[in-house]
């Protein structure tokens, strides 16, 4: 089934009876997408009702066609433009059943067998709004996806010590101490590579903030989840493998990530605290600018006046 984004029915008009709506956002993800789709059947073992929705942000590599011809026959929605990650999730949410939990997956993931069941078990608890699995890298090591809320301490620790050391010492934004990945627990937020959003939380919190375009939208959304009184739970019984590289990378995207880190922090703090946070980010990239174009692009992004993510993306098109 293929749909255009401008023809998507409003959320409240659809009742398909699905308990889980799997949402995959693609952007030139042809190399990564087939293994994810292949893993869904085993990954969804024990889930009685589900639907799969692929939202394609105008890929040029046949990502949408790959999804359309896959044996699972997911619903494929072509946005007709690079709408951004948050906008694509919102499009899928409007298409999904109103009572479904949203399982949002990066296209470069692979689900372990029965990975989704433990997530669904956790959202059955009325206080749980989001559940996230353990992520493994391709070499079998843990991918540290848990995070602390951005703060002046995390920004300066990452700048002075470097992200890896700050994470291991428990001072940076990344939760790097492996002991935190051994047990189920409430967390502040986790990267958006794989997360299940409870249907009740969808209704209360609403849509994802599309002004971020890409990066920090999951930080913002999970903050709103917490502010609405829900818990964010890490569930290590649910396992996924994160291959990486599903939608590319490079200096431009890292610059956007940096800009959105500062934009997000500025939304929730005054000018003085934001200036201290921003200077920490600037310092961290300045002292590492010799490492290459990625840190130099991030430095320029942090120094330049803040603007909308959409304007930033438009300015980087060459």
Describe this structure in words.
With 318 residues, the protein is an alpha/beta fold. It contains twelve helices and 13 strands. It has helices at residues 33-43, 63-69, 85-95, 116-123, 152-161, 163-168, 199-205, 217-227, 251-268, 271-286, 293-303, 309-315; strands at residues 2-4, 20-26, 50-56, 75-78, 101-105, 109-111, 128-136, 142-143, 146-147, 185-186, 189-190, 194-197, 231-242. Strands 1, 2, 3, 4, 5, 6, 7, 8, 10, 12 and 13 form an eleven-stranded mixed beta sheet that branches. Strand 3 (50-56), helix 2 (63-69) and strand 4 (75-78) form a beta-alpha-beta unit.
Order of helices and strands: EEHEHEHEEHEEEHHEEEHHEHHHH
Alpha carbon gap, first and last residue: 34 Å
Compute the CA-based radius of gyration. Answer: 19 Å
* Nearest-integer average pLDDT: 88
Major pleated sheet: 11 strands, mixed
Portion of residues within helices: 25-40%
The number of E-state strands comes to 13
- Count of DSSP-assigned helices: 12
How big a fraction of the residues is strand? 15-25%
In terms of per-residue confidence, which ranges show pLDDT below 50 for 5 or more consecutive residues? 1-17
How would you classify the quaternary structure? single chain
Structural class comes to alpha/beta
Shape: globular
